[in-house]
Amino acid sequence: MQIDWAALGQVFGVSLVVTVGLVGVFTLGIVGTSRRSAEGAGGDVAAAAPTAAARTGAYACFALCAAAVGYGIYLIVA
Amino acid sequence: MEHITLLIGIVIVTALVFDFTNGFHDTANAMATTISTGALKPKVAVAMSAALNLVGAFLSVEVAKTISGGIIDETAGIRPEVIFAGLIGAIVWNLLTWLAGLPSSSSHALFGGLIGATIVSVGFDAVNADKVVMKVLIPAVAAPLVAGVAATLATRLTYRLAKGRDEKETAKGYRAGQIASAALVSLAHGTNDAQKTMGVITLALVAGGVVAPHSDPPMWVIVSAGLAIAAGTYLGGWRIIQTLGKGLTDIKPAQGFAAQTGAATVILASSHIGFALSTTQVCSGSIMGAGLGRKGGVVRWSTAGRMVMAWCLTLPAAGLVAGGAAFLADQGDWGVATVAVLGLAVSGGIWLVSRRKPVTHDDLDEVGERQPAEPAGVVTAALQAVAPPPAGTLPAPVSPVAVVTPEAGRAPAAAAS
What is the membrane topology listed in the Swiss-Prot or TrEMBL record (chain B) (predicted)? Predict the structure, then answer.
């Protein structure tokens, strides 16, 4: 019996890295575009709106995720 | 398509029925958490999933020439009767697990059915035991682990990163992301599973000498297989959606996103690298993983245990039903007819039982967990229903395991009438 451990390990590694990476990047995007909640900002009553830099970074994150989805579709079609 | 015999016609219809059950069995994989986090309304979710299934069926031209992936030796005299018996086994098992609200792999049911029918009809030699271990058993263990670990870590990470953010505001983003990854899962499902049915039909056509060996499936096969799976998906297997979306663990948008992304990644990575993992098991595993990843999150292990039991039973149970069906179908035309009638009766019985406690998309707004029927009892009932007493290939149902629930007891009664 020949078990293809290498392929299984590869699936495991790739899945782990890509999942955690994508979720991380997407979360950064969400963090970048969302307001800091009142408690989080140390008792500030007015919630702080995200800065322009944060916004740009967030959009870059979302673009990266969109590219990943595109690559996914490419994998399905190919 | 002028020389299609009645038998081939029956096989094609049965294959399409299997495709249909496959659709509503597996809607949950892509859409359960999407619905339970409120990213999409139930009806919208299944409509989207159905559309993507249909698109997926047309996308790929890479047809599985060997439907069983080499598990059975398809050149060793696989006749339409065998394929028919295998399909009946797979359909019956799919319907039973659906009745119990348990997500089980439709592919494994199909493999199990084909293996059982082949053993009875051709012999053990035609089954490739190594391949069974390689393609079914190891992936069955590995899939939930891989997806579960990935989803757990991803959930932890996303909660840590988004700490201190307003949950209501981030939820919107998570839901949007979840829709994207659910769409990918649906699309991949359409390409994989609709192709399987096309492969089965093409195999039957080849076996009947209607089309030349190694030919691509004719257009009408592609269209009908795509439509059957999409129709099944649109109908929505609400029972299984309920189990996956609410029964296993309570899913918040962030978890749903992590679980769905993990599932999509694992499915694509595994099919691309060439170590195919079952979609159902990947999705169930990633949902459990997401449940474990949130602080204070709980996984209902009793539900998970029932689900794992169903996974273990899928291959042998579908195989036994198919074996019995193959034994009958080998007796000649009346045997095939009997199997067809019994298959219809059992399916009708299961449907009738399901009507007694219907689960519709409206139920998904309720919180309470519905207790699925005891799978062991259902299995035993199915064996009794499908296997005629003299069929020597089937062992007598082991009674200690069998706590036949009243609902499950109805199936053989309906079949006998």
Answer: Multi-pass membrane protein
